Amino acid sequence: MKKIIINKTPWQTRIAILDNQELQNIYFAPHQGTQLERSFFKGIITKVIAGTQSAFVDIGQEKSGFLHISEVDHELAIQKISATTQIDDDEPVKDEEPVKKISKRTHHSPDIKDIFKEGDPVLVQVSKEPIYEKGPKLTTCFTLPGRFIVLMPNIPRIGISKKIESREERIRLKEIVRGHLPEGMGAIIRTTSEEQSSKNLIKDIDFLVETWKQIQKKFKAAQSVEKIHEDLDLEFQVVRDSLDDDVESIIVDDKEAQRRMYKFVKDIAPEHSQNIHIYTDQANIFDYYNISAQIEAALKKQVNLKSGGSLIIESTEAMTVIDVNTGRFTGKKSLEDTIFKTNLEAAGEVVRQLRLRNIGGLIVIDFIDMSSSSNRNKLFNTLGKTLKEKDKFQSVVLKVSEFGLVEMTRKRSGKTLVQELTNTCRACHGLGFIKSLQTDCYAIFKELKTAIAQGKDYKKILLGVSSAMFDYITSTEYDAILQLEKMCSCKIEVVRMADFATGQYTIEKK
């Protein structure tokens, strides 16, 4: 069973989801920060780039937002283009493709320079937080999430969660939603809507439709680059999106936060209101539930599997690579059986780590090679099933390649755990390694020799180096110093500089 643990402090809110005491998801909300994802802004077009069919939009943040033409709502496009365009109303709706960026298509794709001009105001929603050197990603294909429904106010199609498998239930839900959506609007029917009454679904729709009307009204009155609407506070978002019959308790360590959470849950899911509890122990709630230690483990490259195998997870800006190793696991039968069991365990752990570390984009998994095609198919099916059951984000998985790799993509959302909790190392600048003492030492000697050669009348040279470098030179490379003294006919004194970094040095001529 699941627990939602909420830790409130004056500087930060942290929310963790546990499943049988194992950390599945972790969320952070610094109180001084600004939530961008899902927020609506009155943006101003600052630049239109025809070559990439994109525009940059000022939304009042450090970096301009990026809006690609694939994220421009079709109705907005044809309103902006003076020439009338033939619309194909017969495009089929795919249940398994809940979010379609452009609801109808013209015979000729519109050009972004015909849609936007510099200085134009535009209502935009942030679909992705800034990442690395990129600004926030924007869309005009809006979504407003509720507990049972995600409203798409300008995309007139209905999608439904793949996890709702009953054909009769899918038909029932779609009929209810279709019958109560205003014309021109669409929706995604969430997994939580399964077996819900029409009253609850209609209440959700009405609330989201009213929210959309308020956003439109605020847009007309707003100043340029003003934030118009943002989603609920993070703890309420997590509870709204995660609350189902598997959640046995929501535990909060702050009395006022517990009171607000109780009121919120009683309003959206009164049957769960008795599951809101207050934590009063002296120990930090994240330490009590062993969450802090699991967060620290999730920052490491290596993940140990219960069988003795391991995962090595390494991410770059472009992609994430996951390597599966057997480690100490030897199994009890054949080598193939050992490898197969390790791969199956790894598949489940990979899905957990993707959620926990919030890894998205292109992902390549190097499972251990298996000779049995049947086992490869079972592994592929297991990975796909686990993603479907355990991961709420959309993913696409390709079958095992001829090199024995599984390639997949997973929707990006917000910062990764590493981006959330760490900064680039000042010593290695993100490389993950630093030069050896020997390499730095030889570079210093080279500069020292050049400096001495520039003047023949120097009697003494003071070489200031870090403590680590001083110890290395005096114990290992002092003969080189003596040779330099003979070559250049001057005295070289090595000086320990306690506040210097490893490769830092100074050369002072006397």
Task: Describe the structure in your own words.
This protein has 510 residues and is of the alpha+beta class. It has 14 helices and 24 strands. It has helices at residues 74-80, 112-115, 167-180, 198-221, 234-242, 255-268, 285-288, 291-298, 335-357, 373-390, 417-421, 437-453, 467-476, 478-488; strands spanning 2-8, 12-19, 22-30, 40-49, 54-58, 65-68, 121-128, 137-139, 144-145, 149-152, 158-160, 186-189, 227-229, 247-252, 276-278, 302-304, 310-315, 319-325, 361-366, 395-397, 406-410, 460-465, 491-496, 505-509. The strands form five sheets. Strands 4, 5, 6, 7, 8 and 13 form a six-stranded antiparallel sheet that branches. Strands 16-17-18-19-21-20 form a six-stranded mixed sheet, with helices on one face. A five-stranded mixed sheet has the order 3-2-1-14-15, sandwiched between helices. The termini are far apart.
Described by the principal axes of the CA atoms, the overall outline is globular
Distance between the termini: 74 Å
Low-confidence stretches: 83-107
Radius of gyration: 29 Å
Q: Beta-sheet strand percentage?
A: 15-25%
Q: Can you count the helices?
A: 14
Mean pLDDT, all residues: 87
| Class from secondary-structure proportions | alpha+beta
Number of β-strand runs: 24
**Helical content (DSSP H or I, runs of 4+):** 25-40%
Largest sheet: 6 strands, antiparallel
Topology (SSEs and partners):
Layout: E1 2-8, E2 12-19, E3 22-30, E4 40-49, E5 54-58, E6 65-68, H1 74-80, H2 112-115, E7 121-128, E8 137-139, E9 144-145, E10 149-152, E11 158-160, H3 167-180, E12 186-189, H4 198-221, E13 227-229, H5 234-242, E14 247-252, H6 255-268, E15 276-278, H7 285-288, H8 291-298, E16 302-304, E17 310-315, E18 319-325, H9 335-357, E19 361-366, H10 373-390, E20 395-397, E21 406-410, H11 417-421, H12 437-453, E22 460-465, H13 467-476, H14 478-488, E23 491-496, E24 505-509
Parallel strand pairs: 1-14, 11-12, 14-15, 18-19, 22-23
Antiparallel strand pairs: 1-2, 2-3, 4-5, 4-7, 4-13, 5-6, 7-8, 9-10, 10-12, 16-17, 17-18, 19-21, 20-21, 22-24
